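Ticket #4471: structure output looks truncated?

Reporter: J.K.
Steps to reproduce: submitted the chain below (312 residues) through the standard prediction queue, then opened the result file.
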Amino acid sequence: MKSLFCAVVTGLFFLYSCSPRDKKGNFLDTTTSGHVKIAVDESLKPLLDTELDTFEALYQRAHIDIIYTSEGEAMNLLLNDSVRLAVITRGLLPSEMEMLKSLKLEPTQVSIAKEGIAAIFNKKNPDSVITLPQIKDILTGKISTWNQLRKGASKDSIQVVFDQPASGIVRYFKDSLKIDKLAPNCFAVKGNPAVIDFIATRPHAIGLVGVSWISDGDDSTTNVFLNTVRIGGVSRDTGEYYQPYQAYIAQGQYPLTRNIMAINREGRAGLGSGFLAFLAGEKGQRIILKAGLVPSTMPVRIVEIKREPLQN
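Returned output as attached by the reporter:
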């Protein structure tokens, strides 16, 4: 018994002495243990909550604090070394890459998924389809009332609601539609759930939210949201309209799509690197698939269902 006790103590001593430490002797995190802070675009919260729960269940010595914020603030936190990993919907800009390289860092950026931006409408609104040119005209103020969209519609003003002023959604529309300044009828609330709540009580408003908030049919919060608003169809021109379903995003038919990027600034293989590897690995990609988004590193099987009556 004494020899067994000595063996256990010796093993713990070697484990303790071999654990990585910094220059002050403090323990360093590893790819599957320790503590780290990361920043995530708030529009991706439902997906990252699920990813984190699974990761920490698998690696119980790992503790990740997620700061959910706007895309702009998430990038600022990464550049200022307040977090080591950021999950947003764009890659590093050349100036940001140069800034990190000036600090002798080689940042890693990996596309982990493709998702969409959903246009949502109040259930009492008879209009629930829109084209990209119409969206641009609304965001720039060229179209400001519903009867300018459709003859016979109301003369009420169109309100456009975003999640946050510096969000990735705002940046997406400015970049993709080449808009310098949004019209006065566009404003932001506090997060995607607030956008959905706003649209549920405003018949003359359009909301723009991340698809991950409404794509997982097994999530109770998603079902509550879907019962209060209508998901709009979007067309590139005046052709066929598509809703932000997984298959349409995967095939490129839904117009409002964007990549989800994980950007890591760690100079070694720490917990941020471990979580990034998990997101891009099989388990993380399966979570993305189940959430109704399109994983980047594994194939998506698309099944076409023909709704035809059975023959006797």
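Triage note (M.O.): checked the attachment and the full token line is present. The chain has two domains: 27-114+259-295, 115-257.
Status: closed, working as intended.
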